[in-house]
Amino acid sequence: MKHTLIVLMEDRPGVLNRVSSLFRRRNFNIESLTVGHSETPGISRMTVVVDGDDTVVEQVSKQLYKLIHVTKVTDVTSEAAVLRELALIKVHATANTRGEIMQLCDIFRAKAVDVGADSLTIEITGQEDKIDSLIALLRPFGIKEMVRTGRVAMVRGWSGNGSRGARS
Known about the structure:
By secondary structure, the protein is an alpha+beta fold. The chain folds into two domains: 2-75, 2-Layer Sandwich (Alpha-Beta Plaits), CATH 3.30.70.260; 82-152, Alpha-Beta Plaits (2-Layer Sandwich), CATH 3.30.70. The chain is 27% helix and 40% strand. It contains four helices and nine strands, in the order E-H-E-E-H-E-E-H-E-E-H-E-E. The protein has helices at residues 15-25, 54-66, 98-107, 128-138, and strands at residues 2-10, 30-37, 43-51, 70-75, 81-92, 111-115, 119-126, 143-148, 152-155. Strands 5, 6, 7, 8 and 9 form a five-stranded antiparallel sheet that branches. The longest helix has 13 residues, at 54-66. The two termini are 37 Å apart.
């Protein structure tokens, strides 16, 4: 089962290396790893997607807490969460195929962000299966280059006073 972990850590050199080394030592393949700034200055937010059973992922979470610069670990796999990914896809496009590619973009709510003489670069955000579907439809045109960010996740609702749900 794929688990989505959110790890908050101090923004210091070497912390990412220590965290990823922990997964390597446990022989986990990291499916996706996304790191960026959080809402708190000096704290980075890492979203990690790993494949494993609940017991092993729980042990990894406990090991992460032992790392000195990790401040919080949350497994959001079974929580109501917003999960998104971003992809940029450069696809071969001729004058004859550009219209069809743009129609696919409209269907998937993607947009062309760069137009070249023989290519279109498409930006799409959404859940992984949506991105996978668009990629499958674009493959026959010829994908020249592609990059995906990996999953980012945020638990739904507002938790200002410790409870979830809408603000009063």
